[in-house]
Amino acid sequence: MDNPSRIxxxxxxxxxxxxxxxxANPFLRGKPIGITGKNQERSVVxxxxxxAKALGVKTAMSTWEAKKICPSIMFWSGDPEKYSDIMHRxxxxxxxxxxxxxxxxVDESFLDITxxxxxxxxxxxxxxxxxxxxxxELGERITASIGIAPNNLxxxxxxxxxxxxxxxxxxxxxxxxxxxxxxxxxxxxxGPRIKERLHAMGISNFKQLRxxxxxxxxxxxxxxxxxxxxxxxxxxxxxxxxxxxxxxxxQSSKPTTGDLTPDAKSYGxxxxxxxxxxxxxxxxxxxxxxADKVGWRMRRDNxxxxxVTAFVRFxxxxxxxxxxxFHEPTADGMQLFHMAWRILxxxxxxxVRLIGLSASLLSHGSxxxxxxxxxxxxxxxxxxxxxxxxxxxSGVWKRGATLQTEFKSRSSGFHFDHEV
Length: 420
Ligand SMILES: [Mg+2]
Known about the structure:
- By secondary structure, the chain is an alpha+beta fold.
- It has a domain at 248-402: Dna Ligase, domain 1, CATH 3.30.1490.100.
- Helices cover 39% and strands 20% of the residues.
- Helix 4 crosses helix 6, helix 11 (214-221) packs across helix 12 (223-232) and helix 14 (280-300) packs antiparallel against helix 15.
- The protein is globular.
- The protein binds magnesium ion.
- Magnesium ion binds next to strand 1.
C-alpha cells in the first residue's frame, strides 16, 4: 500500500473543449454540441457537450455516427490555442493552492496537497475552494470533477466516479473497495486490449487481478505485469512533478553553475502523427527523431538532463506518460531515446495519435568525459555533427534509423504539439 499520508487531488474538467466554447458563446449554451478537428477526413468528436453526452454522443465517435444518434448536434471546430490558454489559467489557480501541480493532459491535473491539506477534511475544503475559484475566474460553464485519494492512480479513478461536477473522496482504507466497484478498463493504464488479454486469463475484475500470482502476470506482461499487480493493490505511486518543470524552458537560459532550481525547465518535443498507428517500428522512428531534436537543443545550450518523460496520446484522446531518471546526466539523443522507449514499450501502443518526450532535471555544462572509448568517440562524433548543424541548420544530418521519418508541419486538426 502506498504511503497513506499522501493526499492527491485529480481535477478533470467536464466536457472541456465544449464547455470552453459554451462559456465563450452564449448561443451554444444548453445545446448538444460536438467539438471536432478542422480536418474533415479525420473528424471525430473530440469532446461532446454535457447535453450531447446525455443524448448518447461519446468522445471519439465519428461525426456521422454522432449525427445519426443525435440529429440536432452542432459541430464546432476546436481552437487548441484557446484551450491551452485556459489550461494555463486553471493550472495557475491550482498553483496558488500548492506548488506541486502536474498537468496530466490539456484538461486534467494532479495536485499533491499533502502538506497544505493535512487531512482528508482539509483536502475536501480545499477542493471546494478550488471549485469556487474556477467558477469565479473562468465562468460557470467550466466545471470540474475532483477525486481525492492517496496516490495519482486512485485519485484519477475517483474523479471519474461521479461526472459531471463530482467530488469523490477515497481514503486509503477505501481504495480496494473503489477498485472492486470499477471495471478493469476504468483504471488509467488498462486499455481495451489489455482488458481482453486479462479476460482470456480468467481475470475480469480487480479482486481476481489481486489474487492472481504476481509472477504469472510478470511472465505474461513483463514489467507491466508488476505494475498491474501493484495497481490491483492500489499501490502505484508516481510523484507529482510540478507544473513549472512541465511547462518547459524558453530557447535561451542564462548560464549558471550546478543544478538549476527544481522548478526550472525542460526540453521537449511532441508530434501528432499523420495518421494514428499501432506500429511499434513507426513509433520508435518518430521517438528517435524527437529525441535527437531534444538532444541537439540541449547540447546547443550546453545543458544536460537527468530525467526523461515519455508520453503518448491515443486516438480516444486518453494519454499515458511516465518518467525515469538517469544515473548520469546526458544530452545524447540516443540515450534519451533508449530511456523513453523503455518507458513506452510496455504500454499497449494501439491507435497512437501523438508521441513525445521531454528531458528535465537540468544542469549546465556538458557531461563528464566517459571512461569508455566507444562513448568518448560518440561524443566527438556528436560535437562534429553539432558544428555542422550550427553552420547549416537543423536538417543537415539524420540518423539512418530515422531516414524515413519526416516531421511535417500541419495547420489543421488538433495538435497540442509544442516545442518547450
Ligand atoms: Mg475531462
